[in-house]
Amino acid sequence: xxxxxxxxxxxxxxxxxxxxxxxxxxxxxxxxxxxxxxxxxxxxxxxxxxxxxxxxxxxxxxxxxxxxxxxxxxxxxxxxxxxxxxxxxxxxxxxxxxxxxxxxxxxxxxxxxxxxxxxxxxxxxxxxxxxxxxxxxxxxxxxxxxxxxxxxxxxxxxxxxxxxxxxxxxxxxxxxxxxxxxxxxxxxxxxxxxxxxxxxxxxxxxxxxxxxxxxxxxxxxxxxxxxxxxxxxxxxxxxxxxxxxxxxxxxxxxxxxxxxxxxxxxxxxxxxxxxxxxxxxxxxxxxxxxxxxxxxxxxxxxxxxxxxxxxxxxxxxxxxxxxxxxxxxxxxxxxxxxxxxxxxxxxxxxxxxxxxxxxxxxxxxxxxxxxxxxxxxxxxxxxxxxxxxxxxxxxxxxxxx
Length: 401
Ligand code: SF4
Known about the structure:
Blueprint: H1 11-19, H2 29-35, H3 43-57, E1 61-71, H4 99-111, E2 116-120, H5 130-139, H6 144-158, E3 162-166, H7 172-179, E4 185-186, H8 210-222, E5 227-233, H9 239-256, E6 259-266, H10 283-296, E7 302-303, E8 323-327, H11 344-353, E9 357-361, H12 369-373, H13 378-386
This protein binds iron/sulfur cluster.
Iron/sulfur cluster binds at residues 76, 78-80, 83, 85-86, 122-123, 168, 205, 207.
């Protein structure tokens, strides 16, 4: 089922709203609520407005981050209804990477021109599972976050890759600690709706309470940590919730200027998940959500993952994105293993066919680089070595994929 059916609004109202857009200025909540429901007839005009806003912000280029995916542990204390990543201890595929495994993957990625080490992991599994406490004790760490911090430091010290951790909810203290060993970090807000449709996404996921996630994002803002967040489309939220979630992100960014990237990510159904029978949001819903995100956040980086909209992902380039997110020439998307990333040469060709140049960025976006580089230490040294004059990756490895 889907709760987000698109009810067209009268043709003239969307056309009028689009005509009233002032370049560089965000649209209002009321305009966003109308435009996200626009009819198929109005969709081309909405996309044209979003693409124009993107071109005003960052003309001619769409970026991506060449990364390795490091699933440090897939044990997790949450049970999100759409997740295929998480495991319980003893379940087939349950695994916590050793330091040797982390380093081997990072070094292999380094050889392929990767510049990001994305650490994705379950949220605080040791709070639920004695087996994880035992694994951590064996490795010599008090918690998953202590282990993550050490592995970020290891990758930073031993390779040219820059860590970008994605470990779930974080306290202010942990944001500060991880910021010492990574130039940016992330936490999907997903939605501001605390009461999604029942028997679905967040019924058994204590770390997905929107207020808790907003607090982590705000704590990062207080510390000026470049932060990636985003909205999940199709998890039982209403169309209004998509707009409200984007507005909550905008409000935090206006206060702290630290949101480096907003991901607009679509739910994909998979056979073994509780939400296996849910209807996936269609391309039209995604195009509307991305375009409205661009118009609500005209001066912010907007990303949509290409593998989750294959084979039509290049249409998202016409909806106002300026980034494809992390794409790996080496490791699978462990969160969506059945949706392989496009070959980077194909991504380049399809990006160019839409009129854009594909450029490789670092995990931290160029406009956020100076604040991180200003802090002396190993992280600053590694960033200076990796960044070109324009703040993107100094070595552009696209053609060797
Ligand atoms: S989506 Fe993240 S928090 Fe939710 S179950 Fe999967 S790993 Fe855990």
